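Q: What does the assembled structure look like for these inputs?
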Amino acid sequence: MSEPPVISTRGLTRYFGKRCAVQDLTLDVPRGCVFAFLGRNGSGKSTTIRMLLGLLRPDRGTASVLGCDSRQLTPELRARIGYLTEEHQLYGWMTVRQAGEFQAAFYPRWDEKFFRGVIGHFGLKPEARVKELSRGMRAGLCLALTLAPDPELLILDDPALGLDPVARRSLVESMIYLTRRADRTIFFSSHDLADVERVADHLAVLDYSILRACCPLETFRNSVQEVKLGFAGPPPPLPPIPGLLQAFRTEREVRIACVHYNAATERALQALTPLTLERVPLGLEASLIRYMGERGEKTLILSNTEVSS
Amino acid sequence: MALNININTGSSVPIYKQITEQIRLGVATGRLAVGDQLPSVRALAESLAINPNTVARAYNDLAHEGLLETQPGRGVFISAKRQVLSREESRRRLEPLINTLISEGMALNFSAEELQAAFAKQLRQWQNEKGNHHE
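A:
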């Protein structure tokens, strides 16, 4: 339980000129989890990842990875981290096999069988030239190059970007394969909530450079609720409702999304004497969209919470 | 296993619940019998392309209900079915299901009598099928 987090940031902040890209980010990623890092484009995800890897200096705050300050990562520690960027760096003249051999030279724990497994999974032939590969195949090769060193921590920056559905599924399967070792941690940013729902057990949401949620995925889903109130005529004005995210009114109905729905919320709503009051189950995407409304809710930042399993 | 588990992402039902519901239904309809083996957590997770923790969560919930048990070194099996919910709790869960049936049925312009008849007919058919599975 008290095992130190694999990734830990405290008050991490970075400006680009006057624009704040990441503001006061405090985040822990427990060992052994699959952690989805969500947020709109430009919300600061890539900037955070680059600071985690020591590729970018924070203006304030600290980041540590595998127990070491990100600014002082040694080559030995870096070899235990797999990092897949948005832009893949490959030599076009190499064959797939040569790209593997080139990469293997840098990693003592290189797992050739795993490398071949992943490239086979993406339908790649060892003799194919890198420059002739499709986007999905290039992504598969990059993933294989990142996974074969058997990283303790895998950091993926939007790995699903531009992948077709088949390649995306291969990506998900490869990520799940990595979790065969219980101590392996995956930290990935994504916009694909279907994939997030499949593989992630924790999530964090960054919005306009600010952390808005950080908790187990199941906690998030359980905490965002929607109810539908039916009335005989136009719905009455709403009283203050704790945790209100959104209210949507129609002629005889009002739909209310709120966080931490409880007995007090229910009493406040019953006081409006609706004809009907029913829960509307939400999917992950709907929950996220409700939560990310303009009210700036930040109540789902939970720390040190374990996955209930 | 005579049960094919399917999951849908983007559903309002979380994945672990989709799994528990399908296994529960499998047991209730007789497609899964006591002693039937289920895939291991790892195998089911990999075949469905989902996080193993999700499968473990579903199996744990079912184990708590007494519906399945893990025999170390052998695997996961359907065990004796036990009623764990109180009668009152069961009734409380049943009510919204019936309400949905009534309101959706009425919306499709069926009368109360027609709904009753349709329900009774479907129930008889279901009982017959379940009987066949047990043979």
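The mean pLDDT of chain A is 89.
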